[in-house]
Design brief:
By secondary structure, this protein is an alpha/beta fold. The protein contains 4 helices and 8 strands; from the N terminus they run H-E-H-E-E-E-H-E-H-E-E-E. The strands form 2 sheets. It has a 4-stranded mixed beta sheet, with helices on one face.
Length: about 150
């Protein structure tokens, strides 16, 4: 792994890895900085930890990781991500209880692409589709009120 980090991370990789449970989401990104900017400005996320190589992001009770492409230079997935413009084709990253109207307004304000405006769906949620810098599709949704 090629690291560009200059300081000490908030915890060791071993300790962090041992702390994980359930389903983990790790997104490979061209720029951790740009991806954390998207998460904070569009999804109102909190950055638990972030540096040039890696970030832990949290929003609406969900935590995910971002790894810069350069950290995967000796990883089996290195060849998979090489020269791929849009990533995660066919995957929706749903973030429940994240207001889609606010997320879309934030996305437009900061120059991100809204693929589909907020809409009320028959499965009981209001949702929108927003494209992150590396092409990942984020779907903020909130439950519709019962009348």
């Amino acid at each position: 792994m090629t690291s560009k980090r200059t300081g000490t991370p908030w915890m060791s990789a071993d300790d962090y890895g041992r702390s994980l449970s359930g389903l983990g989401v790790n997104l490979l990104v061209t720029s951790v900085e740009e991806s954390t900017r998207f998460a904070t400005t569009v999804l109102s996320a909190e950055i638990v930890y972030g540096d040039v190589d890696f970030a832990v992001v949290k929003a609406c009770g969900v935590e995910w990781m971002l790894h810069a492409d350069h950290t995967y230079d000796h990883h089996p997935m290195a060849g998979v991500i090489e020269d791929v413009a849009a990533r995660g084709c066919g995957i929706e990253l749903r973030i429940h209880h994240c207001d889609p109207d606010i997320a879309c307004a934030n996305a437009r304000k900061h120059g991100y692409m809204v693929l589909a405006d907020p809409m009320d769906k028959p499965h009981g949620v209001r949702e929108a589709f927003i494209v992150a810098p590396d092409g990942y599709i984020w779907v903020p949704d909130s439950p519709l009120s019962i009348d």
